[in-house]
Design goal:
The chain has 6 helices and 4 strands.
């Protein structure tokens, strides 16, 4: 499947809007901080995972942004974010959707990065991944409603 959904599946962001419309997820105001490493390839940018040194070098700036925003809930999308904020031993595959103690916010959780769902080879795997992501985010919504 391509990010544009050429195999007949809607892109993830459109599917997420459908989930919100069906009442499973609701939009809320949020502060989104996105940091990523990339290399140029023609007119495109290819994302690359940062190494431990690069994560350590950027962490003071990320912590300063988090301190400035002071979120009640912090959601790490993907393994890189989770390892940076929750420690190298954290495993999104087995610990996703679980709130973990962390000094950066009252509630901190990690879940699968949406791009990882799009890279799944089968539509069944993408459906499972999307359902998992929606379930994890529903837990966040429950906390925000409380």
């Amino acid at each position: 499947m391509t990010p544009h959904g050429r195999d007949g599946h809607a892109p993830l962001h459109r599917r997420a809007r459908c989930s919100r419309a069906s009442g499973r997820m609701r939009s809320r105001k949020s502060a989104l901080v996105k940091h990523f490493k990339w290399v140029p390839k023609g007119k495109r940018r290819l994302h690359q995972a940062p190494n431990v040194r690069e994560i350590g070098a950027c962490l003071p700036w990320l912590d300063a942004e988090i301190e400035l925003i002071r979120p009640r809930v912090l959601v790490c999308l993907g393994a890189t974010a989770a390892k940076a904020l929750l420690g190298r031993a954290f495993r999104v595959s087995s610990q996703h959707g679980t709130f973990v103690p962390n000094p950066r916010a009252e509630f901190v959780m990690a879940t699968t990065h949406p791009s990882a769902i799009l890279r799944q080879r089968t539509s069944e795997a993408r459906e499972r991944g999307l359902a998992q992501l929606v379930a994890d985010l529903a837990r966040v919504a429950d906390v925000l409603r409380a």
